[in-house]
Structure to design on (295 residues):
């Protein structure tokens, strides 16, 4: 599933091409993937592109929003307007924007068998594809979308809180610290990849109970969470076995080249302390750590 840096990268790139365009028509190819009334969005101009945790929001005129949740295999592909030739018309390969779970749909002909919703714009087309049908598109008023129960239950993003507030949020839990970091009702936007790497940076064992962190450990962990998330955004997200991501230029994100522990089972710790990265399951997710420096 794309995490905060991956969705933020999608937002940044779509924000360069969507504002000012009008939605001429919405085609729903799979009812399960669409919620709301498409008529609310048809004919409306795109004002901007936002993000709430892992949900992408396309703002439209008239206080209407399109919310898109990628879940495990959702993806967006923006196809630029057709270029006219003296002989024929062809879609412009230059400028195609893609984001989400990587498949050949990013570079193949669209719509494909995985296309669930099509947004026909006055200049270009936006496709929502989803192999496993877990993701969704919702059209509704800005007020109703932002007041959806699951969005209201989201905790604050790490970028929106202070170190002291971070400590208060995590220290009241008796669960393993990694599970607390990934609990979207406590802190939103942190997923498996970045939780693993932040804990390594802070030298904290993923199994450590959150309420047992002492001294500067909360402060160091807070700094580490911010650090790996910013790095993830800078490198355009990660492409990994269970969290694949292709950035909006059709190229793989590069954060995987900077993994600290994630997906490095059996390799030497980057601190060269003699530790070997171990993997175990915690909360049903693959968890990586160095038993030497993360105690």
């Amino acid at each position: 599933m794309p995490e905060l840096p991956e969705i933020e990268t999608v937002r940044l790139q779509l924000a360069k091409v969507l504002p000012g365009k009008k939605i001429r028509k919405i085609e729903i190819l799979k009812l399960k993937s669409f919620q709301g009334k498409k008529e609310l969005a048809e004919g409306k101009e795109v004002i901007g592109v936002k993000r709430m945790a892992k949900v992408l929001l396309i703002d439209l005129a008239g206080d209407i929003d399109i919310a898109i949740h990628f879940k495990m295999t959702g993806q967006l592909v923006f196809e630029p307007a057709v270029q006219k030739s003296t002989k024929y018309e062809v879609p412009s390969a230059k400028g195609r924007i893609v984001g989400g779970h990587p498949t050949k749909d990013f570079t193949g002909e669209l719509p494909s068998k995985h296309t669930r919703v099509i947004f026909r714009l006055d200049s270009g087309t936006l496709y929502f594809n989803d192999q496993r049908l877990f993701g969704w598109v919702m059209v509704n008023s800005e007020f109703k979308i932002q007041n959806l129960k699951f969005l209201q239950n989201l905790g604050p993003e790490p970028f929106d809180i202070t170190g002291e507030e971070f400590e208060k949020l995590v220290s009241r839990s008796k669960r393993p610290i990694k599970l607390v970091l990934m609990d979207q009702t406590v802190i939103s936007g942190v997923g498996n990849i970045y939780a693993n790497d932040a804990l390594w940076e802070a030298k904290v064992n993923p199994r450590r109970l959150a309420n047992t962190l002492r001294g500067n450990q909360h402060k160091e962990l807070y700094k580490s969470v911010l650090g790996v998330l910013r790095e993830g955004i800078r490198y355009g997200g990660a492409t990994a076995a269970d969290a694949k991501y292709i950035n909006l230029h059709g190229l793989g994100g590069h954060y995987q080249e900077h993994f600290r522990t994630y997906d490095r089972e059996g390799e030497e710790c980057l601190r060269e302390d003699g530790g070997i990265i171990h993997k175990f399951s915690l909360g049903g997710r693959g968890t990586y750590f160095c038993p030497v420096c993360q105690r």
Q: What stands out?
A: Residues 86-93 have pLDDT under 50 and may be disordered. Residues 158-237+258-286 form a domain with the Helicase, Ruva Protein; domain 3 fold (CATH 1.10.8.50). The longest helix spans residues 217-234.
